[in-house]
Amino acid sequence: AALLWGTVLLACSCGPGPPRVGAAPLLAATYVLDDANGLGREFDGIGAVSGGGATSRLLVNYQEPYRSQILDYLFKPNFGASLHILKVEIGGDAQSTDGTEPSHMHYENDENYFRGYEWWLMKEAKKRNPKIKLIGLPWAFPGWIGKGENWPYDYPDITAYYIVSWILGAKQYHDLDIDYVGIWNERAFSSKYIKLLRYTLDKHGLEQVRIIASDRLWEPISFVMMIDSELHGVVDVIGAHYPGTKTVPNALLTGKKLWSSEDYSTFNDDVGAGCWARILNQNYVNGNMTSTIAWNLVASYYEELPFGRCGLMTAQEPWSGHYKVESPIWITAHTTQFTQPGWSYLQVDGHLEGGGSFVALTDGLGNLTIIIETMSHNHSKCIRPPLPNFSVVPQRATFYLGGSFYMVETLQVWRSRLDFKFGNSSLFQQLHPVNVWKGRFSLDLDVDEVYTLTTLKTGWKCAWPEPPPSQPFPSNYKDDFNIGNPPFSEAPNFADQTGVFEYFINASDPGDHVFTLRQVVVQRPITWVSDADQTISVIGNFKWVNMTVTCDIYIEKPRDGGVFIAGRVDNGGIYVRNTKGVFFWVFADGTYRVTGDLAGKKILMKGLAGVLDNAWHTLTLNIQGNSASGLLNGYPLWENVTVSDPGNGWAALGTRSFEFAQFDNFHVE
Predict the structure, then answer these.
(1) Which helix (H) or strand (E) holds 427?
(2) By three-state DSSP, how is residue 211 classified?
(3) Residue ranges of the Glycosyl hydrolase family 59 C-terminal lectin domain (predicted)?
(4) Interval 530-539: pLDDT, tens
C-alpha cells in the first residue's frame, strides 16, 4: 500500500482510469531509471521551422496585442510551446512549399538584410528566450548564383559567400547569432561545397557556427562521411527528414549528433498532436535523435495552399485577429518546459510493455524529467512515412529511481489526455504530485495519454484572453501601397507564389504612383520545386466566386513584357505551375489575352489593347457567374467570355516572365 500511495493519489485526481473491479488485471511492468553507469546522449532541444516556405507570411500582418500573444505561445519560456530552437529559411526568391521568400541578394551586386520577415521573427524569438538556438537553411537560391544553371554547386565559392553573407548580416544588422547552418533542403549535397562552407565560415570568424547535413535522408551523407575524414571533420550534425523514428547503422557509426531536422508536417488536430507526442519520444527511443524540429512553426498562410494547418498552431486571419492555440502546442510543452538543451538522456530502453514509450532526462544537477506517451496507432499517424501497425493497451508502469535519483521524494505531474470518442481532450493539466517511496512509484496509464513527471516546479499553462472570432477575408479590400517607411518589404496579405513583390518608391514619378508594388525577380531562381514561368501573388478568400478586381499596372520590359490581374485562382505553392483561374493579360506589344490558366495555354479571348510599356494603365476584371468581362482605363475591352472552371478562388496579380513590373491602387470587391 505504501509503495502505491503515489498511484492512489493519482488515481483519485485523474478521473476514471482503466476499469478495476471485475476487469482483467492491468498489464504491469517495472522500469529502472539510474545514472550510476553514466548517461545517454546530450539533448539538443525541440524546435520548429518558419519557412520552406512562406509559412509565417500572414503572421506579420496581425495587429497588436494578438501578434505578440501568438509569439508568446510559441517562444516564451514556461508559457506555451517554449521552443528551444527556431529554424528559418534563408530566402531564395523561389517557391518553397506555400510561397516564395525573398533573398537578401536578388542580384549579384545587391545586399539587403531587411527583406521578408524571418529577421523579425528571430528577433522576436530571442526577445522572449535569449537562449533559443537559431538555424538557417536554404531551399532555393537566386538565379545569379548558378550563372544560368539550376544548380548551386558549380561555383561553390559563390554559394558559400552568399550563405555566409546572410549569417554576417544577421549579426551586423540584427545582432543575431546564428548557431547552425544547413546545406540545401532535401536536395543533393556536395562534399566540396560543405568543406568550402566550413572554410568560409572560419575565414570570417564564424567558427562557432555548426554545420548540419544534409537535411534529406540518413544516406548517402552518413556513408560519405565514413569514407571522407575531412567531410566527417566539418559536419557537426546529421539531420534527416521524416525518419519515421528510425536511423541507420552508418549514421550511428559516425559518432555525430543525429537530429530529425524536419518532422511532423501533419494537420494540427488531435491526431496531429498524437503524431507529435509519439515522435518527440520515439525519435530518441528508436533512433537516438537528440533534437526534433517540426515543420512548421505556425500555420500563417492561406489554408487552401498545400499542407494547410500543418503548424503547431494556427494564425491565418490577420484581418480578424483570430488565432487558435492547437493541441500540438501543449504536447510540445510536456518536453520543452521541463528540459533544456545541454541536459542528457538517461540510458533506458524506453519502450513500454503495453505499447508507447518513455524518455528520462537530467540536468546532471539532480533534476529529473520523465515524459511518457501511450499514443495508439490510428491516433498518431503523421503525414509521412507510413506507420507500421502496433497496439497500445492500458497498463500499470512502476518506475524505480536509482543512482542520484534515489533520494527524490516527490515529482510534479502534468498530463494530456486526447479524447477521440467525445472530442473532449484535456491538455497539459497539472495533477497532484506523486510521492516517491524508497525510489519507487507507480502510474496507471490509459491509451492516448502524455505524462510528464518532473522535479521541476516551473511548468505553467498560460493563456491570453480569447482572440477575436474568426472572420472571412474582407469582401471589399483596397491597397494603394502608399507607405513611406514600411515595417516589412511585402504588402499585407499578398502571398507570392512565384517571384517576389515588394514595396517600391518610384522616385521619377510625377506624383500619382510614387509608392507602388513591384515584382523584382528578373532571372529564374535555382528552384526547389517547379516554379511557374510567370510570377504571381495571390490574395483574398479562396471561396470567392463573383468578384471585380481593379489594379493600375506598369509594364517595365519593352517588346515582350506583360502583366495580368486574375480571379478565381485555384492553386499555389508547390502546385503553382498548374494554376487555373480567369487571367486578364496585357502585353508591351499592344495585345491582350484572357486565359483560363497561369501558363497561358487555355486562351479564351485575345485582341488588340494598345497598351504601352513604361506607362500606367488601369485593368478591371469582372467575373459574375459563368461570364467575365474586362475594362482598360475604364472602357470595355472585352466582354461575355464564358468561364466555368474553376468555380472559385483567390484574386491575383503577376507578370508574363521574370521581369520588372509595377502595380498600384489594387482593389478587389
Answers:
(1) strand 426-435
(2) strand
(3) 496-669
(4) 999 999 999 9
Instruction: Give how far Cα 250 sits from Cα of 31, 33, 185, 195, 217, Å.
Output: 30, 29, 21, 20, 12
Q: Between 156-174 and 118-128, two packed helices, what is the crossing angle to 10 degrees?
A: 50
Q: In the predicted model, what is the mean pLDDT of residues 610-633?
A: 98
Residues in contact with 323: Cβ distance below 8 Å, sequence separation at least 6, in sequence order: 62, 66, 69, 70, 313, 314, 315, 317, 467
Sheet of strand 603-608, all strands in order from the earlier edge strand to the far edge: 495-498, 535-539, 650-655, 562-569, 580-587, 591-597, 603-608
Q: Which amino acid is at 256?
A: K
Instruction: Compute the distance between CA of residue 284 and CA of residue 292 in angstroms, rounded to an integer.
Output: 9
Q: List the grid coordinates of 224.
A: 560519405
- Dihedral, 497, 500, 501, 504 alpha carbons, nearest 10: 180
In degrees rounded to 5, what are phi and psi of residue 164? -65, -35
Catalytic residue flag (residue 186): yes
Show the cell assigned to 443.
502510474
**pTM, to two decimals:** 0.96
Rounded distance between C-alpha atoms, residue 216 and residue 512, angstroms:
49
Q: How far apart are CA 293 and CA 132, in angstroms?
A: 13
Task: Kindly state the cell numbers that stand for 96.
Answer: 518553397
Same fold, 39-374 and 477-668: no
CATH code for the domain defined by 477-668: 2.60.120.560
Strand partners, 662: 518, 554
| Phi-psi domain of 192 (left: phi exceeds 0; alpha: psi -120 through 50; beta: other) | alpha
Residue of 101, 118, 262, 373 marked catalytic: 262
- Across all residues in the chain, what is the average pLDDT? 96
Mean pLDDT for the stretch of residues 637-650? 97
Query: Residue 566 is placed in which grid cell?
Result: 486574375
pLDDT at 394 over 50: yes
pLDDT at 507: 87
Q: Are strands 627-632 and 210-216 parallel, antiparallel or unpaired?
A: unpaired
Hey, where are the domains in the chain?
39-374, 477-668
- Cis peptide leading into residue 296 (ω within 30°): yes
Which one is catalytic: 111, 186, 353, 669? 186
Q: Work out the pLDDT band at 23, boundaries 50, 70, 90.
A: low
With 70 as the cut, is the pLDDT of residue 9 above it?
no
Q: What are the grid coordinates assigned to 27, written together?
A: 498489464
Q: Is 490 a catalytic residue?
A: no
Closest CA to 2 of 306, 562, 437, 484: 437
Q: For residues 288 and 284, what is the distance between their CA atoms, to the nearest angstrom? A: 4
